[in-house]
């Protein structure tokens, strides 16, 4: 079983490294997941992670790339809701990587 | 454009046949297989509904035979190669899963 | 030009995997930019009812997922007027009601049809 250790807590991860329990997520957990991906989280990352948490709250699913871009554009404007910006932040796979860091399940409609 | 509608559920327990007949176009055909062949039970409501609609009705021979159903003259019996041929002859196949 | 696909969802939301499967096909198709339509027929129209809550059934919320359709590029969402009327439901605001005649023409128009 994959696990992630954050401070004194040991969290369960699925086979692709996604958090099993959505509610176990915290800022510290996100930072730990990010460092496992060798990614330094900036304010620009955080606002996308917050957005994704909101998306999941609203629709109960993790978005594929296109809906993620659309939703970002809707909430944060087109200068952030575009593939260039999101690819730059999340190493070219924004739907998968950002969902992972936001503690959401792997997007199922994204191969 | 013509659609082949494939039905396999009994018309007595389920609304598929009724909905299919309601939405069928004039160019469409129906293929009955499995328990859907019970629609050919003479005198039943599904039998009358099928007859009244005057569509092309095909029946998978072995399924009707297994159930001891005799075919009215407006229904055509097909085997599996016939099923494949029908799928090719129509623009698309809509299987009512 | 990719072929257009009409998905007909005709099962109630919480009775089995069918409603979920239909939605997954639609969302996957949308993610791949397929021209896609979704029609609720028969008991499928119950998926459109508001104020559903299946948390106690421990099921994922299909109805919340439906709200995401337009973000997935799926704007062709329809409901069968006959099925709605049969069940005493008023026309939903998240799907366009169609008569049997209109549905018949729509089935004709799409390149492929999948009924779940």
TrEMBL record, chain A:
EC nos: 2.8.1.-
Gene Ontology annotations of biological process type: tRNA wobble position uridine thiolation
Active-site residues, as the UniProt record annotates them: 110
Domain of life: Bacteria
InterPro entries: DsrC-like_C (IPR042072), DsrC-like_dom_sf (IPR025526), DsrC-like_N (IPR043163), DsrC/TusE (IPR007453)
Keywords annotated in UniProt: Cytoplasm, Transferase
Subcellular location: Cytoplasm
A UniProt-annotated Pfam family: DsrC
Annotated Gene3D superfamilies: 3.30.1420.10, DsrC-like protein, C-terminal domain
GO cellular component: cytoplasm
Gene Ontology terms for molecular function: sulfur carrier activity; transferase activity
Main location: cytoplasm
Database matches in PANTHER family: SULFURTRANSFERASE TUSE
NCBIfam families reported for this sequence: dsrC_tusE_dsvC (TIGR03342)
Function: Part of a sulfur-relay system.
Protein family membership: Belongs to the dsrC/tusE family.
Record protein name field: Sulfurtransferase
Organism: Pseudomonas brenneri
Automatic annotation (TrEMBL), chain B:
Record flagged with keyword Nucleotide-binding: no
GO molecular function: transferase activity
SUPFAM superfamilies: DsrEFH-like (SSF75169)
Keywords, sorted A to Z: Transferase
Pfam entry (one): DsrH
GO biological process, one term: tRNA wobble position uridine thiolation
CC annotations in GO: sulfurtransferase complex
Entry keyword annotation includes Transferase: yes
Domain of life: Bacteria
Gene3D superfamilies: DsrEFH-like (3.40.1260.10)
PANTHER family hit by this protein: PROTEIN TUSB
NCBIfam families the UniProt entry points to: sulf_tusB_dsrH
Protein name: Sulfurtransferase complex subunit TusB
Organism: Pseudomonas brenneri
Gene: dsrH
TrEMBL record, chain C:
Listed NCBIfam families: PRK00211.1, sulf_tusC_dsrF
Family: Belongs to the DsrF/TusC family.
Stated name of the protein: Sulfurtransferase complex subunit TusC
InterPro entries, per the entry: DsrEFH-like (IPR027396), Sulphur_relay_DsrE/F-like (IPR003787), Sulphur_relay_TusC/DsrF (IPR017462)
Keywords assigned by UniProt, alphabetized: Transferase
GO MF annotations, alphabetized: transferase activity
Enzyme Commission number, as recorded: 2.8.1.-
Parts forming coiled coils: none
């Amino acid at each position: 079983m994959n696990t992630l250790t954050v401070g004194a807590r040991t969290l369960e991860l699925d086979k692709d490294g996604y958090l099993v329990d959505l509610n176990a997520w915290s800022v510290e957990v996100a930072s730990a997941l990010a460092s496992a991906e060798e990614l330094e989280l900036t304010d620009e990352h955080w606002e996308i992670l917050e957005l994704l948490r909101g998306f999941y709250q609203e629709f109960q699913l993790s978005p594929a790339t296109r809906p993620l871009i659309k939703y970002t554009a809707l909430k944060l404007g087109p200068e952030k809701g575009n593939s260039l910006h999101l690819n730059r932040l999340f190493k070219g796979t924004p739907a998968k990587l950002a969902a992972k860091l936001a503690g959401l399940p792997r997007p199922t409609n994204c191969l | 454009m013509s659609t082949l509608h494939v039905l396999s559920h009994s018309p007595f327990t389920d609304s598929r046949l009724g909905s299919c007949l309601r939405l069928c176009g004039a160019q469409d055909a129906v293929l009955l297989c499995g328990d859907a062949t019970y629609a050919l039970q003479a005198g039943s409501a599904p039998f009358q509904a099928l007859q009244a609609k005057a569509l092309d009705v095909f029946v998978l021979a072995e399924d009707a035979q297994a159930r001891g159903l005799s075919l009215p003259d407006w229904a055509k019996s097909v085997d599996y190669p016939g099923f494949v041929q029908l799928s090719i002859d129509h623009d698309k196949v809509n299987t009512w899963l | 030009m990719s072929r257009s696909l009409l998905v007909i969802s005709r099962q109630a939301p919480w009775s089995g995997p069918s409603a979920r499967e239909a939605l997954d096909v639609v969302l996957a198709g949308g993610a791949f930019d397929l021209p896609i339509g979704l029609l609720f027929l028969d008991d499928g129209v119950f998926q459109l009812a508001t104020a559903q809550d299946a948390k106690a059934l421990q099921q994922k919320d299909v109805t919340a997922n439906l709200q995401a359709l337009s973000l997935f590029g799926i704007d062709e969402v329809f409901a069968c007027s006959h099925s709605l009327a049969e069940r005493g439901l008023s026309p939903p605001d998240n799907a366009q009601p169609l008569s049997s005649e209109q549905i018949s023409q729509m089935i004709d128009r799409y390149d492929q049809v999948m009924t779940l």
